[in-house]
Amino acid sequence: VLWFLQSFGIVNGSLSLVEDNNVSLLADLGRMLAWIFVPLGWAGDMAWKATVATFTGLIAKEEVVNTFGVLYAGLGEVSEEGTEIWAAVAADFSAVTAWSFLIFNLLCAPCFAAMGAIKREMNNWKWTLASIGYMCGFAYVVSLIVYQIGGLLTGEVTFNVFSVAAFALLGLLLVLLFRKGYSGRDDTIHTAMALESGK
């Protein structure tokens, strides 16, 4: 499917084989969905490539690297070290954008095989979708925080509504992380004490 989407495109109103990735069906699909990731710093020509790589990462996480090899090298051959594509990747990604991209892909939903295992263990589509949605949402929030706040520190981002959201979400995460009285250990101790006293 990935090969087909990358190899074919709509040219002069008809579906035909294309040599340029930028006019492929894959590029069109990536451009349609890239707006979702703009607050994470995925903008410009790299946005559709990063979006496509993220979605192919749902097949298997190593596909992110393979997709970059294909999209940045075009029809050329890429060595194991990837030296042929580093300049193009470096031109598209700043340090903060690269961190945002990496964090999102490391924290978002796992590959389809792992999703299948989640479904099998939970034996419930609602909980399976909720857990996958939670992972994707958490990845988005952390990437947003990293890009917006990191971009403000480096001067890459000007203060905007997404920066406000990033600070608010960071505050919320810190409150949830450090709040007192809600740890599982405390609940276990109180339950054990209640059982022991007969209440």
Question: Would you mind describing this structure in some detail?
Answer:
The protein is built from 10 helices and 2 strands; from the N terminus they run H-E-E-H-H-H-H-H-H-H-H-H. With 199 residues, the chain is mainly alpha-helical. The chain has 2 domains: 1-93, no CATH class; 109-199, no CATH class. A hairpin with a 2-residue loop joins strand 1 (8-11) and strand 2.
Please give a handful of descriptors for the protein shown.
2 domains, mainly alpha, 10 helices, 199 residues, 2 strands, two-stranded antiparallel ribbon
> Which stretches are low in confidence, meaning pLDDT under 50 for 5 or more residues running?
none
**Helix count, per DSSP?**
10
Listing every helix as H and every strand as E from the N terminus to the C terminus, the arrangement reads HEEHHHHHHHHH
Average pLDDT value?
85
Structural class: mainly alpha
Provide the number of structural domains.
2
How many angstroms does the end-to-end distance come to?
61 Å
The helix fraction, in percent, is: 55-70%
Principal-axes shape call = globular
Q: What about the largest sheet?
A: 2 strands, antiparallel
- Tell me the Rg in angstroms: 21 Å
> Number of DSSP strands?
2
- What portion of the residues fall into strands of 2 or more residues? under 5%
